[in-house]
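Hi V.,

You were right to ask for the full record rather than a summary. Here it is.
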Amino acid sequence: MPRIVIPDDAPPVMATSPACHKLLEKTAVDYYDTLPEGEDGLIERIAGAEIVINIRSSTYFTENVFSQLPALQLLSIWGTGTDNVDLPSAARHGITVTNTPGVSAFSIAEHSLALMLAVARRIPRMDAEVREGRWPRGEATQIHGKTLGIIGLGAVGRQFARLGAGVGMHVIAWTMHPNPSLGFELVSLDDLLRQSDVVSLHLRLSAETRGFLGKRKLEKLKPSAILINTARGAIVDEPALLEALSGSRIAGAGLDVFEVEPLPAGHPLTRLENVVLTPHSAGVTPEALEAGLALSIENVWNFLNGHATNVVVLGKQAQ
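Predicted structure:
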């Protein structure tokens, strides 16, 4: 069996996974439940490994890392995002990269719905005021009959669109790769921004989408609009968003992701009453966790059996 390393299970999720227990029954795995200390620490942990199962997006696989791992054949990522991996470098070094698409779609879509309702109904703020002995009323926004604009029609975007329609919203969408057969009403990005009462981001982070929603696009939103982001923090220009929120240029935001994570104590977002914040946890449910971990391991077995699955970069074949 090849040498398999899990270098970054912190906080631990893989250790308690039934899928991981099955893996350990078949082969030895070098397992770490702390984050490596920078590139040097990561390289030290995975030196000589043929297969790496990556758990945390905070672990970065750069050109420098790949160049020092001549034995590495497969990087199996738990999750959909690959913004922590230098994909062109992986291709140059002949390293196959796989991910686990779609496994968190239901969980993230439900979280997007929860954030939307929490912002619209001002639930966190009203909860706090009731606990303080006050009795705030009449400050909520009804979602039924409003327009939901979905930016990105991957698995999560499609599922949230269905949930939005299920609570009586009019759903419109914009995507980089339009496919009318999906059955959603597609509009231009400008029309979506101007018409939507709620805008929800479901794009992958890439060079093309970094800073995608900047000052000019935010200025096209209605003053009553709500922004939801469960994708990646860097897709939004955070200073421009802060300006729009603090100046009541838009009504509010529900954010699960940020430019810097964990969100630093005292960050300006934490001082705004029209924002609901969660700690990049949209996809963190027992069901989604286990499905993703199991698929990341399944991708390893399929690669070793000569038919790689969920391939992002196809490198050399298993030896």
